[in-house]
């Protein structure tokens, strides 16, 4: 049996477990459904899936073994919860954060044309970067124009992906706030005028 990757102290185990979910659309969709339903049973997951109950059961078992899901009940039917994934990968000068938001966005790529197109153009790493911009965008700390300039993409493409990812962020990350800090914005404007 595989060790629970997220409970181990070695980051490589966590990276391999999360990589498994990133590379398998079916596992990413299952993780996203568990996250959305909070503590579903296999039966509840299978009723919302195109896969057979046996396949869903095997996938849940695999995700529990690698530590991405955890069983939260001892009695039948077992209930499962998605474990919070939060890891940072640094490659050279670039840093990428892998969170449930990325996994949910990947799970939606086959049903969301905008996310699918963005991944085709910029890859999973580009989507991870876009999520960081979307966090700042959702907090009113970033604009599509700034993202477009920094990522060297059209403003319309930046605005489109930021809006798509903002919806996912608001669903997945409870602590994210959409309240605008007027004082901070005024200070930023004053600072830019003074330059």
TrEMBL record:
Domain DUF7437 as annotated: residue spans: 110-174
Transcription regulator TrmB N-terminal domain: which residues? 28-82
Domain of life from the UniProt record: Archaea
Under Pfam families, the record lists: DUF7437 (PF24218), TrmB (PF01978)
InterPro entries noted in UniProt: DUF7437, Tscrpt_reg_TrmB_N, WH-like_DNA-bd_sf, WH_DNA-bd_sf
According to UniProt, the name of this protein is Transcriptional regulator TrmB
């Amino acid at each position: 049996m595989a060790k629970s990757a997220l409970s181990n102290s070695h980051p490589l185990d966590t990276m391999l477990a999360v990589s498994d979910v990133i590379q398998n659309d079916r596992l990413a969709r299952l993780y996203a459904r568990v996250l959305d339903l909070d503590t579903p049973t296999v039966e509840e997951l299978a009723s919302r899936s195109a896969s057979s109950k046996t396949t869903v059961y095997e996938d849940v078992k695999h995700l529990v073994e690698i530590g991405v899901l955890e069983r939260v009940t001892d009695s039948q039917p077992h209930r499962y919860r998605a474990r919070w994934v939060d890891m940072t990968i640094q490659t050279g000068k670039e840093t990428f954060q892998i969170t449930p938001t990325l996994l949910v966005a990947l799970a939606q790529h086959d049903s969301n044309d905008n996310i699918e197109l963005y991944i085709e153009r910029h890859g999973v790493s580009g989507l991870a970067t876009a999520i960081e911009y979307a966090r700042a965008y959702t907090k009113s700390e970033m604009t599509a124009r700034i993202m477009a300039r920094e990522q060297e993409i059209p403003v319309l493409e930046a605005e489109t992906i930021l809006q798509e990812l903002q919806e996912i962020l608001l669903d997945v990350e409870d602590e994210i706030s959409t309240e605008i800090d007027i004082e901070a914005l005024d200070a930023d404007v004053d600072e830019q005028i003074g330059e």
